[in-house]
Amino acid sequence: MHIILLGPPGSGKGTQAQRIAEHYGIPHISTGHILREAVRSGSDLGRQVGATIAAGSLVSDTLITEIVRARLQEPDVASGALLDGFPRTVGQAGALDTIVPPDHLIVLLLQVVDEEIVRRMMRRRICQSCGITQTVPDSEAGEAGHCPRCGDPLVRREDDAPEIVRHRLRTYAALADPLIAFYASRPGFAAVDGLQPPENVTAALFGHVDRIRHSKESKGSK
Ligand code: ADP
């Protein structure tokens, strides 16, 4: 079972991805997290992509596809994975179809309007150690707060600055429609309203995964 979670930056994708991965016992593969880790560790990859990420632009399809291809060959993902942040373009989606059989994919779309996204991103913090995302209350200024999982400080992501957020949203808007059209007619596709409370979003996502799996299994057994 390979699950893809699509949705704009700030749609709650990271949080929901974490929950889906835990619930179904599959690894959570976030391309953003992989790239940020590379930047933080100062690896060759990190040096190559650092400026692109900081500007809120996308790294090349070829590079990100090779990273995902290599990751999906590791033993822990033999029975599936949750992909968060990939594919982002039709080119990446086409490449993914050559890595994972298209009928093994479950594609979930989180829908959220732009105004809500900008508001959410201003309150978003990330743990530098384990990469989880938290939303701080409106009243909380600065970089305060600690990670509920590992206790390390939470920080604002460099690319969550307002102008960069707007650039990322424009990039998403330009790429999302063709990407969604690429998947929308497949039986493994479902869209969920991301403006609902997080627990309702999670329940709706689990519901779609269970339904799609069930229908694939019953088709497979015929
Ligand atoms: P977002 O909150 O924008 O969804 P991510 O954590 O998924 O952020 O990604 C952060 C940055 O990493 C992106 O702005 C982009 O520079 C790079 N990146 C992540 N995934 C991809 C991808 N599939 N293709 C190209 N660039 C990517």
Written description of the protein model:
It is a single chain. The chain contains 8 helices and 8 strands, in the order βαβαααβαβαβββαβα. By secondary structure, it is α/β, with parallel strands linked by helices. The protein has a single domain, classed as P-loop containing nucleotide triphosphate hydrolases (Rossmann fold). It has a 5-stranded parallel beta sheet with strand order 2-3-1-4-8, sandwiched between helices. Strands 6-5-7 form a 3-stranded antiparallel beta sheet. Strand 5 and strand 6 form a beta hairpin. Helix 4 packs parallel to helix 5 and helix 6 crosses helix 7. The radius of gyration is 17 Å and the shape is globular. The site of adenosine-5'-diphosphate (ADP) has 17 residues, from helix 2 and helix 3. The site of adenosine-5'-diphosphate has 17 residues, from helix 2 and helix 3.
What does the average pLDDT come to?
A: 91
Low-confidence stretches: none
The largest sheet is: 5 strands, parallel
SSE run: EHEHHHEHEHEEEHEH
- Inertia-based shape: globular
How many helices? The count is 8
Within the largest sheet, what's the order of strands?
Answer: 2-3-1-4-8
CATH fold descriptor = Rossmann fold
How would you classify the helix and strand content by structural class? alpha/beta
Number of domains: 1
Radius of gyration: 17 Å
Which small molecules are bound?
adenosine-5'-diphosphate
- Please report the distance between the alpha carbons of the first and last residues: 19 Å
So what's the CATH class? Alpha Beta
Helix content: 40-55%
